[in-house]
């Protein structure tokens, strides 16, 4: 063939898609420097006894030992587990049920949707405040019910250490389920109309169709929703601070608050880092394999 | 005569849009009826009304002389097969087949029997344990048919079941559906916009346009004696060639004059005599035109524009009377573009339509 | 020059007190730019620390004096005030001298103390006791004894806010009152875990158990909400530092008439000398650095001290000022201070880390009736043993 | 009139097997109070009450005076409507020495939110586009890191980011804050955009390449105009997120840039005796107004956008 | 001879999956080459490699003797048309056509000229101001072709351009593409899995299977003398009938014995002599079988299972030698199921393949 022309030489692999790579620099920097770097930094310093400022005085696993001996950490973990599990389950269930109801070709759909979604636009400070108030036994729901004549009625979740986490859950659901509902609704709208028809011809009752056919078909939506809810759950902090500050006592403490308090109030960075490392580790154990299946592994796009 | 499915004065509107308007149709026991029409003409809507998946605006539907207008789909004794298969994706093929029966609390032994029979008939026994995602398109559609089959119903409804398949599979499954109908002998209503399917499968075809049935007849009648211009153009591939002209009468013979060329249509079996001066459309099917062969009628000359060899036959695109027309010749005779051919036209199998009413004359 | 000052004094009395500081500073021809952040030190401190370490420091910032800023100083981020102190003779005027010691690291002075806050006070609502039909108690034991009567009258005996530092503080107060100054120093200054596990402290835990029972039902978070319960007579009393007095003042209550204060819970009249101090980050700006010096000296200026502390309800850091306007309670405090019955505050003695652990412990203890005093004491001893 | 008569005539004559038609005809009669409707609308209305109750309480309370609130029933409508709490929340509430309420932070919030929203969306959409259409080696790795990062509590990252910002010399500036918002918005937004762009027909992208359009041309001329819904979703998420942010606004800037939420926090958390609930509620609503407006204005697009983007995992 | 497009040793893998393996193909100037194969065989992949939309793993690509293996798509002198049209939805038709030229900074006057010419050729002038969403499928595809046209390139690449259209439009546009090729005379590479398109359009067809070209020849050769069993079964609709049997030699004649029936294949022009005992597959096209007519070869009897009247002709499904087979007869002769017919087979146009290697004998 003819002599070498420009196109015949395999260009440097690094220069291919150069623009795309340049455009991705912010992302790569963020991912590597901030998130990965920050994580590694955090892990490294979790083995030190850094106080107010990060210092490289390595103390081995001391911080971790202390962490797992701290009753507050244990309570935090338990709370996160309960809160996480329940809010995952409830947001998904409630969100789905609402979406299913909204999908019944109802009137005023826009109005209902707006009502359910507006809390999402409010900040946690606000949510916490309002619900703290509604759940306050002196002013809130309890006092109203009592004033209606049911004297023994008792509903003060925020002041009862045994159920305080459920009180927080109420507010969390109030704020979050609207978004879940919207995601689910979008998912439902994406389901092939013919499936419904087939199920009706087969005489499958509505609820069975949802449970046995539709839900399994919504895997994609459910996963996206899970990521969004779960990332919110792991990070839950503001809501607890705004509603109870972790009280009564330490009954509603959560890991993110432990991290924050020990880093900044106790000025024991090492302890805070150890706690965050434990959180990250848990998240990584759950997420990485999933992310790999979902995005890696040479799967086709989409 | 009692019909298997009767539709009486059926109307259906989506809000202000009326899709079906006072439609009537009777379908006999064991008949294979094809609803044929272009996209959006209301075929699926009609089928969904019969199935009970859409609430009618007006009219009645009878299945086996039972008024089912307000019945639930499952109680109508119908089975339905969809274009997109609509298989339950997370269930195995077996589960897909048996699910409806289980919900209806049919005894397990009976379920097994019916599933086995359907799997036998459709030859999907080896697939029973698979998921729909592990099946090819044709296999999926077979399962979808199986799902209707196990319901042991008398009326099968098909909504473009083969549209998502490639040509080869389509022709294979077409034969299978035909075979199925011959062995089951139940009523089938089949929606399609593919005329080959309609012609090969149907006992009778209902050609629809904008919610109105244009012609309801057996395939040969539809093909050979289309009731109007729409049906004529819609059926047949390549399409019927149309020549717009005027009737002339000369020396006891009738002609249709088109752009200087006079076609002798004396042999045409007109229902009402052609009036000289009447504006008409002359329709000729590509395969009814003989090329370079002695034929019954007159001979015309035309030039080849393009040829499309299709293996078994060859499609020629010609210019005649200033109009492009196609001619199908059997075998592998080749005519390079530019060559001149002699056409003989048989007016006995032509169609003539009134240019205004567009109805057959 | 404009100097931004960050602090977390946002309640009514506090804000009024800050206004005095600002006024005095503005009078020097500079400008006080207020950087208040509400939500107590917990919210504010990370912000302050990030800004200092982030290289965008404010002109001056409040810390509780003690060990909170230790590392910032060690990292060379804070300004050495030795010159100003020298010039203004702080060593002489600041009383007790332990205040300045807390500001001193390796012989250099890094902060300007502005007040003395003592924790050891029991604030009692005269109206509440009147309503319950019992005389206003004179000490802790009487208070405990009066509790059932209060409860019967629908009054919460002891108001206690939900924030963890309140519980921990209340315990410290009980410890000084019940176990005495020496034990307090053994435990917190010497970090003697054996004492912490010993019988003296066990007594304190029993008292805390009483307090816990009496505090049941005070469903409030903030300390001043708890104080408000006392002010309005919904609660009998509150163990809280002298800053609570500011709230009484703002509410227009009069010491001795509407409310009663018992230093050292009326048992052991000792007060701790924690308090607030201002730290000055190292600034590049020449002019601002000068203004920092001016601010530092303004803060210890006698007039400022009087004006500020009267509003804040705390004690001045210098003994040579005239507090004619001081009210009943403040006078009691000044007397004790003059007698030298002082101890250092736990902020000065313990690292924030140990403080936090302590807070966690007491916050849990006070909220959770099923936690026995014995268990709590064991954990307390562990914390002391691990403290540095 | 005539027509109707004819129709009914036709219907009765039109018979199957010669007998008159009887039985159901036309649409199945639907009662407005069918069991299904009761269940569906009943549930929706009850649920709506749950969602609306706090809003109702907020509004009602914000219109009451403190004495009325002290008396007690938080659900009772105000006996005497007063807008004083709103005025106070907006213009008078104190934080330390500054008594100019939320108004002080409002423009700061705008100044923070607008560039942060624009830049974070711009960056994330380019990322999503690069990930979906220009898959280069390692892209998936970075993406996975990003997704995992969505789970990192913000607090953990404060120190590393303080260090980074300090080294960049933008600590305490608006630029710094915008960078922080861009960084923390990146994981979820990138996920959203990547899925959306991956859902667009790949052939469109190929056609544009054959047409000679490069990375940026395709992004600007082809992809952007097709992606309005997902941009609306991203915008809503970011506006709500950034507008309501308190932590970053206060940690990474200086007081002259403090957003409205700092004031809100100050109003809500600095207690002067009794909590002034009416002012708190008014402040709360005022703060939420901007995201709510954005939300109401673009609510329809929001759902459409979610349908388009987020759904395919 | 210089080829217009040459592909040399092209390999392409997605990760571990090798889709194309050392593929070679040369396409002449002005040639219309069709890549035909079933779904997933790598047709689009090959086309994308030629277009530069996929980075090859190994091998080289020459367009007009220029090595373009690593060139950007826009610099290769190609235009491409996609199955889904891939029109830019937010731009008008005019903008769609001119976009590429504007990106390349062609002067406006030149752009206008080229757009006008393309609009002229494709008869889309009245549509220029519309958005793609306001066009019908056929119009959209025309615009998509226009977009390639304005680029004034020598090589056109089509990736199943007609698959999304319905049968009628498909046959219309097919003719247009053919006409376009005849008038432009540039090189076209056309991917499809529709054999009718392949047969009618191609100068040469490359039949692909799992990334390997099975046969590259002109349509008639492919149709009449398929190189192997795959090509034989793939081309032709309905498919070629296959009979698996064994070669027998008797009295100087060759037979293929299938399930008791011996087919006389002496007339078959075998490339290598058939060996007695060899396992072979005998292939007969449905249209090469004469029914109830005197033919060249022997006569066999078979029973009709099903008939599929398709308008112009009639497809019979028969059972012969225990196997199902199809026969296409012209016209409208009807054979009800169950009737017996006499078939005469012409072995001169049959195909025989080795049962093991599956290659033509
Ligand atoms: N839910 C609906 N709301 C409003 N209009 C509808 C609805 N469903 C269908 N239509 C309209 O009714 C008409 C007929 O639709 P239908 O689905 O019956 O057509 P079709 O003949 O099945 O077409 P296709 O071949 O594309 O399936 C169309 O014009 C369509 O736009
Ligand atoms: N991005 C990709 N990653 C991995 N495998 C791919 C990718 N693109 C295509 N393939 C695989 O390569 C093979 C060939 O694909 P290609 O799209 O070329 O098929 P095709 O012949 O065009 O089929 P169709 O007729 O369905 O368009 C298929 O098996 C497909 O699964
Ligand atoms: Mg349809
Ligand atoms: Mg392809």
- The number of helical runs of chain C is 20
Helix content of chain D: over 70%
Largest sheet of chain D: none
* Strand order in space, largest sheet of chain C: 2-1-3-12-6
User: What low-confidence regions of chain C span 5 or more consecutive residues with pLDDT below 50?
Assistant: none
The level of helicity of chain C is 40-55%
The structure class of chain C reads alpha/beta
**Count of DSSP E strands of chain D?**
0
Main beta sheet strand tally, sense and closure of chain C: 5 strands, mixed
Oligomer: heteropentamer
CA-based gyration radius of chain C: 20 Å
Number of helical elements of chain D? 14
Q: List the secondary-structure elements of chain D in sequence, H or E.
A: HHHHHHHHHHHHHH
Keywords summarizing the entry:
heteropentamer; A: 302 residues; mainly alpha; MetI-like fold; 14 helices; flat; B: 361 residues; alpha+beta; OB fold (Dihydrolipoamide Acetyltransferase, E2P); 2 domains; six-stranded mixed beta sheet; 35% strand; elongated; binds adenosine-5'-triphosphate; binds magnesium ion
Structure description:
The complex is a heteropentamer, with one copy of chain A (302 residues), two copies of chain B (361 residues), one copy of chain C (388 residues) and one copy of chain D (313 residues). In chain A, 67% of the residues lie in helices and 0% in strands. Chain A has 14 helices and no strands. Chain A has helices spanning 18-23, 25-45, 62-69, 71-102, 109-117, 124-134, 141-147, 164-189, 193-201, 206-217, 219-234, 238-243, 255-265, 269-295. In chain A, helix 3 (62-69) crosses helix 14 and helix 4 (71-102) runs parallel beside helix 8 (164-189). The longest helix of chain A is centred in the N-terminal third of the chain and has 32 residues, at 71-102. Mean pLDDT of chain A is 82; it is low at 297-302. Chain B has 361 residues and is of the alpha+beta class. In chain B, strands 6-7-8-3-9-10 form a six-stranded mixed beta sheet, sandwiched between helices. Chain B has a five-stranded antiparallel beta sheet with strand order 13-12-11-14-20. Chain B has two domains: 3-234, 3-Layer(aba) Sandwich (Rossmann fold); 241-354, Nucleic acid-binding proteins (OB fold (Dihydrolipoamide Acetyltransferase, E2P)). Helices cover 24% and strands 35% of the residues of chain B. The longest helix of chain B has 18 residues, at 167-184. Chain B is built from eight helices and 20 strands. Chain C has 388 residues and is of the alpha/beta class. In chain C, the strands form four sheets. Chain C has a five-stranded mixed beta sheet with strand order 2-1-3-12-6, sandwiched between helices. In chain C, helix 1 (12-27) runs antiparallel to helix 16, helix 7 (126-132) packs across helix 8 and helix 9 crosses helix 19 (352-367). Chain D is mostly helical. In chain D, helix 5 packs across helix 13 (260-269), helix 6 (139-149) crosses helix 8 and helix 13 (260-269) crosses helix 14 (277-308). Chain D has a domain at 104-311: MetI-like (MetI-like fold), CATH 1.10.3720.10. Chain D has helices spanning 2-13, 35-62, 66-71, 84-92, 103-133, 139-149, 154-168, 174-199, 202-210, 215-226, 228-244, 247-251, 260-269, 277-308. Chains in contact: A-B, A-C, A-D, A-E, B-D, B-E, C-D, D-E. Chains A and D meet through helix 1, helix 2, helix 4, helix 5 and helix 6 of A and helix 2, helix 5, helix 6, helix 7 and helix 8 of D. Bound molecules: adenosine-5'-triphosphate (ATP) (2 copies) and magnesium ion (2 copies). Residues 14, 17, 19, 37, 39-45, 193 of chain B line the site of one adenosine-5'-triphosphate (ATP). Residues 43-44, 159 of chain B line the site of one magnesium ion. Chain D: One of its GO terms (cellular component) is plasma membrane. Chain D: This is ABC-type sugar transport system, permease component.
């Amino acid at each position: 063939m003819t002599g070498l022309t420009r196109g015949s030489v395999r260009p440097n692999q690094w220069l291919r898609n150069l623009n795309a790579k340049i455009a991705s620099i912010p992302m790569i920097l963020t991912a590597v420097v901030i998130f990965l770097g920050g994580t590694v930094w955090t892990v490294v310093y979790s083995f030190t006894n850094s106080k107010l400022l990060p210092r490289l005085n390595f103390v081995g696993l001391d911080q971790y030992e202390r962490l797992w001996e701290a009753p507050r950490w244990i309570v935090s973990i338990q709370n996160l587990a309960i809160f996480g599990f329940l809010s995952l389950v409830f947001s998904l269930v409630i969100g789905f049920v609402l979406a299913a109801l909204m999908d019944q070709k109802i009137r005023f759909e826009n109005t209902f949707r707006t009502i359910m979604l507006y809390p999402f636009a409010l900040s946690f400070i606000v949510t916490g405040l309002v619900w703290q108030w509604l759940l306050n036994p002196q002013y809130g729901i309890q006092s109203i019910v009592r004033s209606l004549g049911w004297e023994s009625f008792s509903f003060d979740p925020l002041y009862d250490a045994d159920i305080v986490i459920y009180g927080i859950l109420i507010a969390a659901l109030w704020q979050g389920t609207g978004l879940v509902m919207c995601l689910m609704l979008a998912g439902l709208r994406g389901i092939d109309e013919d499936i419904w028809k087939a199920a009706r011809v087969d005489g499958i009752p509505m609820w069975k169709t949802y449970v046995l056919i539709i839900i399994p078909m919504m895997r994609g939506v459910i996963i996206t929703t899970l990521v969004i809810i779960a990332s919110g759950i792991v990070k839950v902090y503001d809501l607890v601070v705004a509603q109870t500050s972790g009280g009564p006592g330490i009954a509603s403490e959560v890991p993110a608050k432990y991290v924050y308090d020990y880093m900044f109030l106790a000025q024991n960075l090492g302890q805070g880092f150890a706690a965050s490392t434990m959180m990250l580790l848990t998240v990584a154990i759950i997420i990485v394999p999933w992310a790999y299946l979902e995005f890696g592994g040479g799967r086709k796009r989409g | 005569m009692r019909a298997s499915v009767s539709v009486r004065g059926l109307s259906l509107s989506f809000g202000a849009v009326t899709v079906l308007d006072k439609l009537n149709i009777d379908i006999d026991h064991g008949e294979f009826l094809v609803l044929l029409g272009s996209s959006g003409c209301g075929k699926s809507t009609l089928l969904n009304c019969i199935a009970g998946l859409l609430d009618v605006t007006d009219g009645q539907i009878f299945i086996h002389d039972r008024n089912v207008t307000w019945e639930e789909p499952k109680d109508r004794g119908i089975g339905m097969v969809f274009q997109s298969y609509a298989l339950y994706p997370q269930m195995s093929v077996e589960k897909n087949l048996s699910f409806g029966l289980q919900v209806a609390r049919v005894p397990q032994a009976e379920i097994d029997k019916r599933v086995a029979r359907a799997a036998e008939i459709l030859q999907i026994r080896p697939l029973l344990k698979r998921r729909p995602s592990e099946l090819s398109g044709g296999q999926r559609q077979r399962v979808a048919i199986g799902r209707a089959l196990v319901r042991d119903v008398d009326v099968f409804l098909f909504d473009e079941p083969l549209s998502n398949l490639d040509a080869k599979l389509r022709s294979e499954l077409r034969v299978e559906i035909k075979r199925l109908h011959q062995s089951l002998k139940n009523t089938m209503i089949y929606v399609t916009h593919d005329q080959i399917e309609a012609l090969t499968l149907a006992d009778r075809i209902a050609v629809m346009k904008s919610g109105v049935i244009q012609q309801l007849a057996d395939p040969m009648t539809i093909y050979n004696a289309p009731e109007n211009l729409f049906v004529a153009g819609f059926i047949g591939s390549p399409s019927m060639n149309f020549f717009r002209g005027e009737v002339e009468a000369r020396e006891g013979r009738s002609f249709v004059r088109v752009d200087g060329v006079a076609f002798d249509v004396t042999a045409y079996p007109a229902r009402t005599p052609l009036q000289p001066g009447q504006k008409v459309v002359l329709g000729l099917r590509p395969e009814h035109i003989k090329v370079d062969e002695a034929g019954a009628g007159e001979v015309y000359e035309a030039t080849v524009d393009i040829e499309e060899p299709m293996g078994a036959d060859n499609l020629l695109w010609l210019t005649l009377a200033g109009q492009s027309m196609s001619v199908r010749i059997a075998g592998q005779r080749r005519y390079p573009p530019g060559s001149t051919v002699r056409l003989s036209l048989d007016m006995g199998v032509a169609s003539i339509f009134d240019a205004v009413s567009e109805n057959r004359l | 020059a404009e100097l931004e000052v960050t602090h977390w004094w946002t309640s009514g009395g506090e804000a009024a007190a800050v206004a005095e500081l600002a006024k005095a500073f503005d009078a020097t021809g500079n400008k006080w730019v207020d950087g208040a952040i509400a939500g107590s030190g917990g919210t504010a401190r990370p912000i302050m620390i990030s800004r200092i370490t982030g290289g965008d420091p404010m002109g001056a910032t409040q810390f509780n004096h003690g060990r909170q800023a230790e590392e910032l100083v060690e990292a060379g981020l804070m300004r050495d005030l030795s010159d100003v102190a020298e010039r203004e003779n702080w060593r002489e005027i600041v009383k007790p001298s332990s205040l300045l010691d807390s500001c001193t690291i390796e012989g250099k002075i890094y902060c300007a103390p502005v007040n003395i806050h003592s924790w050891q006070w029991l604030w009692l609502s005269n109206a509440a006791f009147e309503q319950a039909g019992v005389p206003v108690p004179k000490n802790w034991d009487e208070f405990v004894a009066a509790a059932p009567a209060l409860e019967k009258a629908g009054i919460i005996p002891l108001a206690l806010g939900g924030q963890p530092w309140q519980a921990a503080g209340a315990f410290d107060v009980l410890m000084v009152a019940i176990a005495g100054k020496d034990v307090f120093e053994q435990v917190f200054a010497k970090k003697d875990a054996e004492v912490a596990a010993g019988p003296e402290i066990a007594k304190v835990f029993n008292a805390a158990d009483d307090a816990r029972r009496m505090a049941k039902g005070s469903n409030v978070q903030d300390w001043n909400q708890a104080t408000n319960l006392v002010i309005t007579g919904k609660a009998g009393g509150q163990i809280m530092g002298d800053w609570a007095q500011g709230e009484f003042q703002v509410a227009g209550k009069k010491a001795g008439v509407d409310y009663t204060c018992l230093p050292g819970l009326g048992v052991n009249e000792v007060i701790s000398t924690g308090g607030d101090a201002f730290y000055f980050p190292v600034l590049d700006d020449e002019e601002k650095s000068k203004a920092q010096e001016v601010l530092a000296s303004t803060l210890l200026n006698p007039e400022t001290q009087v004006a500020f502390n009267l509003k804040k309800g705390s004690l001045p850091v210098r003994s040579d000022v005239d507090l004619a306007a001081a009210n009943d309670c403040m006078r009691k405090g000044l007397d004790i201070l003059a007698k030298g019955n002082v101890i250092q505050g736990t902020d000065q003695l313990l690292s924030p880390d140990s403080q936090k652990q302590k807070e966690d412990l007491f916050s849990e203890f006070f909220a959770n009736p099923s936690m026995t005093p014995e268990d709590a004491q064991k954990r307390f001893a562990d914390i002391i043993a691990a403290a540095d | 009139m005539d027509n109707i008569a004819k129709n009914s005539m036709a219907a009765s004559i039109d018979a199957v097997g010669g007998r008159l038609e009887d039985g159901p005809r036309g649409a199945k009669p639907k009662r407005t109070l069918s069991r299904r409707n009761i269940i569906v609308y009943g549930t929706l209305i009850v649920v709506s009450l749950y969602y609306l109750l706090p809003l109702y309480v907020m509004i009602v309370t914000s219109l009451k005076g403190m004495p009325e609130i002290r008396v007690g029933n938080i659900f009772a409508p105000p006996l005497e409507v007063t807008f004083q709490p709103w005025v106070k929340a907006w213009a008078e509430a104190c934080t330390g020495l500054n008594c100019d309420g939320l108004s002080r932070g409002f423009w700061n919030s705008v100044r923070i939110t607008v560039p942060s929203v624009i830049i974070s969306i711009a960056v994330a959409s380019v990322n999503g586009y690069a990930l979906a259409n220009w898959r280069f080696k390692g892209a998936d790795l970075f993406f996975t890191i990003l997704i995992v990062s969505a789970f990192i509590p913000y607090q953990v990252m404060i120190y590393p980011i303080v260090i980074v910002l300090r080294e960049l010399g933008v600590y305490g500036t608006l630029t710094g804050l915008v960078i922080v918002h861009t960084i923390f918005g990146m994981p979820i937004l990138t996920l959203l955009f990547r899925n959306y762009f991956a859902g667009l027909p790949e052939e469109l992208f190929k056609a544009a390449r054959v047409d000679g359009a490069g990375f940026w041309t395709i992004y600007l001329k082809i992809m952007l105009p097709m992606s309005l819904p997902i941009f609306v979703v991203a915008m809503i998420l970011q506006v709500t997120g950034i507008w309501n942010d308190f932590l970053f606004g206060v940690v990474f800037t200086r007081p002259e840039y403090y957003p409205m939420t700092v004031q809100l926090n100050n109003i809500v958390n600095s207690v002067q005796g009794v909590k002034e609930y009416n002012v708190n509620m008014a402040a709360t609503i005022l703060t939420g107004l901007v995201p709510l407006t954005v939300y109401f204005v673009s609510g329809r697009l929001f759902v459409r956008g979610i349908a388009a983007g987020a759904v395919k995992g």
